[in-house]
Amino acid sequence: MFQRYSPSLRFRFLTALCAALILALLALAGVSKWLILPALLAEERSVVEQELDRLERSLKLEEQDLLAKVRDWATWDDTYDFINGDAPRYSEVNFSQQMFEDMRYQLMAFFNARGDIHFLAGLNPSSGQYQTCADLANECAWMAPLVASMQASINEDPEQEKTALYAHIPPAIVASAPILRTDGSGPPTGWLFKVRKMDNNWLALLEDYTGLIISLDVVDETKLTQTDLLRFSNTIHAQRFLPLNRPDRQLALGTRLDRSRYFASLDTFRYVLLWTFGLMLIVIGLVLLLLERMVLRPLKSLARFAQDANIEALTNNPLTQRRDEIGQLAQSFLKQFERQAELTAELTELSTHDPLTGLANRRLFDKNLIDATQEALNQSTPMAVMMIDIDYFKLFNDHYGHLEGDTCLQRIADTMYEVAQTHGFFIARTGGEEFSALLPNTSLQQAIKLGQAISDAVDALAYPHHMSPLAPHVTLSVGVSALDPEEPANASSLMRSADQALYQAKAAGRHRVSQFNSPLASAEVSTHNTPP
Ligand SMILES: Nc1nc2c(ncn2[C@@H]2O[C@H](COP(=O)(O)OP(=O)(O)OP(=O)(O)O)[C@@H](O)[C@H]2O)c(=O)[nH]1
């Protein structure tokens, strides 16, 4: 037959915990993707920005250094005189190949007040040789692009000292200042420009200074962003775009950084994730273990107790001592079992005893009779039965009423029960005013005596019955029968014999004990001195 599948509580818990675990993992994955990883990348970007800031500051320092040097030369009376043609040996005394190399100058350009070239000196980029020029002709032609930019700068803002990055190959740092007297007086008499090449040697110096690997490019297009990042598997290439003297060009100052810090953070995060997952599994295991010990096992025990309805075992079980919900459940079970036992006892009592007299009823008597007869036959032991009937009880009821009749029945039953208890036999109410007794291990003679004892006890009770033609009190007629070892018998034949004996006692005048001898002959064994 089809049986509906019902998962166990353990399975349900496991499923719920696994679902919770999966949800937690999904949440962790979400947190990783949308919070942690972006945060790590943002942190990496901030580190890169800091490095680029440092790089840019180093470049600014270079510009300021060059500007300081230009200012120093430009506010010097010798330079002032040189522009005005009053210091003929100025260049010889002050300039040399050695000085340009030591100061890392590529070019020094002097302009007069009109912005025309006064004097040029520099290291030729092709030969590396020091040279001086009065104009841009011949071997000084390499200076032309730089000089053009300088003259444009003078025209643009003639008053101010300034620094700029020139978009040449290689790019260059250029600082300029108006030429004044040493005390700063008078109008400028010209301009002095110094050019420092940003070539590989310059880069190498900056790399030494900053500890970074640096790249430098002049790019054509103008980038909208100030910083560009390109991430590779183990390195990150970052560029900072700086303005050049030409608006259509930018200087891409770049560096290549390794991503070890990012990957270390990532590894730490993965390690934390792994531990979190492991701890979750441990917690799930612990929860299941605790569930097994604290809930499932006690519930199984309770289910066993419920099946067996074993009150004693449950009473002694520590479960009933617990103060938690399981303890309350166990106590409820116990109370329920006790109540059920009481009800069962009451039902058994009701189904096997007569409610009026409290004696066993016919049902119990018949059962005991069958068992006892069987045992007596098996063991070949004697056994007897009695049928007892109250004489003229209809007259009693008619005269005293039914309620009084009930009371009379109770008193007679109590009296007979005491005799049965005293002599160790079993008595039951098997009809309205009819009783039966079962006497194991009792011979016919002994049973007759016990029948007589019952009748005597009722006589001694002297329960008034003024309507009885026999005596002024209630009397009994008793029929006795016993198993005959010679005759085949069973429970019903034995009771039939007792009934016949009772019938004979009634027929013989009542208030007497009769024994059953044979189907045709029975004998009255005792009579009372009652009027016929
Ligand atoms: N009060 C009361 N009367 C009962 C009960 N059961 C049976 N009786 C009465 O017992 C009487 C029995 O009457 P009968 O069978 O004629 O017997 P009797 O009057 O005792 O006459 P004999 O047995 O021949 O001496 C009837 O009146 C029944 O109503 C009961 O539980 N309570």
Please state the average pLDDT score. Answer: 90
What structural category characterises the helix and strand content? alpha+beta
CATH class of the largest domain: Alpha Beta
| Architecture per CATH nomenclature, i.e. the level-2 architecture of the largest domain | 2-Layer Sandwich
Core attributes:
532 residues, alpha+beta, Beta-Lactamase, 6-stranded antiparallel beta sheet, 20% strand, rod-shaped, binds guanosine-5'-triphosphate, Diguanylate_Cyclase, transmembrane
Write the layout of secondary structure elements.
Blueprint: H1 9-74, H2 77-83, H3 90-94, H4 97-102, E1 107-112, E2 117-123, E3 130-133, H5 144-156, E4 162-166, E5 172-179, E6 190-197, H6 200-210, E7 214-219, E8 227-231, E9 235-243, E10 250-258, H7 260-308, H8 311-316, H9 325-352, H10 362-379, E11 383-390, H11 393-400, H12 402-423, E12 426-429, E13 434-440, H13 444-461, E14 476-482, H14 491-507, E15 512-516, E16 522-527
Parallel strand pairs: 14-15
Antiparallel strand pairs: 1-2, 1-6, 2-3, 4-5, 5-6, 7-10, 8-9, 9-10, 11-13, 11-14, 12-13, 15-16
Guanosine-5'-triphosphate binds near residues 392, 394, 406, 506 and 510.
